[in-house]
Amino acid sequence: MAMPNKVITIQSDLDIVAARMAARDMAKSMGFGAIDQARIATAISELARNIYLYAGEGTVTVSEIQQGLRKGLQVVCEDQGPGIEDISLVMQDGYTTSKGMGMGMPGAKRLMDEFEIESIVGEGTKITCRKWKRP
Amino acid sequence: MDIVNIPILKIENFLIASVQVALYDMQAIQFKDAVLQKIYETKAKGVIIDLTAMDVLDSFVGRLISDIAAMARLMGTTVVITGLQPAVAITLVELGLELPGVTTALNLEKGIAKLRLITENNADGNA
C-alpha cells in the first residue's frame, strides 16, 4: 500500500527545509538507505530553493511510485514563475545567476536517477525527478 | 522567524560551534555573521565548526561554509570543519561541491589537534 502524496507549498526559506524533511521521511519509511535519503533530501533542497528564489512560490509533491516490481520516490516541483529560457544553460555545471553556486540543477540531476524539465517562459516550470530503490 | 541560537564557545584560543539543527537560509546567514563577529571580539586563532549532527548539506549551506572559511582567513583565523557524515560527504561531491580551501577533520578531537598544528606553525612562520 503506497503512502499518500505529500504536497508542500514553497513560500519561504522555512518551506525548503519542510520539503526536504518530507521527502526524507518518505524515503526513510520506504526503506531507502541513509546515503540515498541524503541524496534525495539534498536534491529537493536545491529544487525547492530554486522555486523560492526564482518563482517566489510553488509546490513540491512527493509520492511513492511503482513500476513493475520496483518502487521509487517521485518529486514534482511546480511553479508559475518566469520559466527557463535556455534549459541546456541552467543544466551546465557552474552556470549561475549569482544567487547560488550554479550547482543546483545539474547537481540535483546527478543525485536523482531520472530528471525531466518542462518550462514555458512566462508560464512556469515543472521538474519531475525520481529515485528508484535498489532491489 | 526564529533567531538562530547556536552557542559559540571559547576554549583557550579557539572557538567551537556545533550545528545541531537544520538551518533555514536566514539562520545560516545569521550564523555566519555571528561566527565572524565572535572571531573579532575574542581574537580567536582558530574556529571549529562541528557538523556531526547535520544529515543534509545543500549548495546554499555549502557555499556559506566556504564563505565563513574564506572570510575568517582574511581576518587571520583558521576554520576547521569537523564531523561530516559519510552520506553528506558523498552528496556534496556528487553535487559538485568539494569545498576547496576548506580544512576538515574527521571529528572534533582531530579537528582541535589539526587547529593546534596549523596555528603553531603559523606562529613559527611569523616569528
Reconstruct the topology from this structure.
The complex is a heterodimer of chains A (135) and B (127).
Chain A: E1 6-10, H1 13-30, H2 34-55, E2 58-67, E3 70-79, H3 87-90, H4 104-111, E4 114-120, E5 124-132
Antiparallel strand pairs in A: 1-2, 2-3, 3-5, 4-5
Helix pairs in contact in A: 1-2, 2-4
Chain B: E1 8-11, E2 14-18, H1 25-42, E3 46-50, H2 59-74, E4 78-82, H3 86-95, E5 103-105, H4 108-126
Parallel strand pairs in B: 2-3, 3-4, 4-5
Antiparallel strand pairs in B: 1-2
Helix pairs in contact in B: 1-2
- Biggest beta-sheet profile of chain A: 5 strands, antiparallel
Please give the domain count of chain A: 1
Largest interface chains and counts: A-B, 27 and 23 residues
**What topology, given as strand order, has the largest sheet of chain B?**
1-2-3-4-5
Reading side by side through the largest sheet of chain A, how are the strands ordered? 1-2-3-5-4
CATH level-two architecture of chain A: 2-Layer Sandwich
**N-C termini distance of chain B:** 47 Å
Report the C-alpha radius of gyration of chain A, rounded. 14 Å
CATH superfamily assignment of chain A? Answer: Histidine kinase-like ATPase, C-terminal domain
Q: Which residue ranges of chain A are poorly predicted, with pLDDT under 50 across at least 5 consecutive positions?
A: none
* Strand residue content of chain A: 25-35%
Number of helices of chain B: 4
Shape assignment of chain A: globular
Q: Could you state the oligomeric state of the chains shown?
A: heterodimer
- State the distance separating the first and last CA atoms of chain A: 18 Å
